[in-house]
Amino acid sequence: MTDLPPNISEPEQIRALVDINLAFARESPTPAQRSEHGKGVADLRATFTVLDHLPEECRVGLFAKPGRFDAIIRFSNSAMQRDDKRDTHGMAVKVLDVPMPSAPRDDAGVPVQDFIFIDSPVFVIGDLRTYIPFDAAFMEAKLNLMGKLRMGLLVLRNLHLLPVLLRLALRRANAPLSVSYWSTTPYRLGPEQVVKYKVMPIGPNRPAPRIRGKDGRRHALKTQLAWGPGLFSFGVILRNTPKTQPIDNPRVDWEEQGARFVPLAEISIPSGQPVEASAEMENDLAFSPGHASEEHYPMGAINRARVAIYAAAQDARRKAAAGRAAPPRSRQRTD
Hints:
This is Catalase. With 335 residues, the protein is α+β, with helices and mostly antiparallel strands.
């Protein structure tokens, strides 16, 4: 998958990435698990409150007027099943019953808006052509030692990516309510503006619990919610200089290039709820950059690929789960 034709089109590149993720689903010992951010740390209820008195240019779509919405939060690990290993960590937010006609609907017919984050302001890859061999090696590395060796060789051939790779892969395990998260990729904010999303913890400044053991981040989250609700400020990083804040290179940190953060909402995760990621919930939940209204639709080639990958992977997971749940067929007698 590393020797690509020089004139390969974007749809062909996206198809290659989809095939890589579907191959992982077929070969994985846990086919119902996500190919990306496979370990769910916790799936939680939350509220998403749009603030009053927002800047005029930000009063678009979900943020057109103040309001309070139910939401679902998923915290995750990117690659590691053990919480105490260094890794990239995710936070996904699904806002429910949103008042936007173009919003997609979930299986129950409820209009939703998803926001997807990692605990880094940048993504490891900036273009699809580079993404394909790295994604192939990353998936194979989850399955066998040869994949890990291939990944190592690929990094040696792309040393310019090493700083970002290390920044992401070696992030210290953290208590989920104690760190900031970024979308890394851009989205529309109405017809004229382009933004990235960011959430930052707010509220009491308590020392983060230490992460110990296989489910250490889940245990830390339980401790944090026992102290009180988890609170985040949600906002956008407004693109103001297209030349230094590109749409098609998520390796660029827009804030470092002068873009400003504007708070738009607050997320509250209440105490007193189970802190778990049950198999049933994990199978039912599906997040995607493409679960978005027209006003907040994803932009850039990496996002277009992620929309296709997430849709195909979700379908594969559900088929795998349905296959396990189906009763065995009885054999028909032929004599």
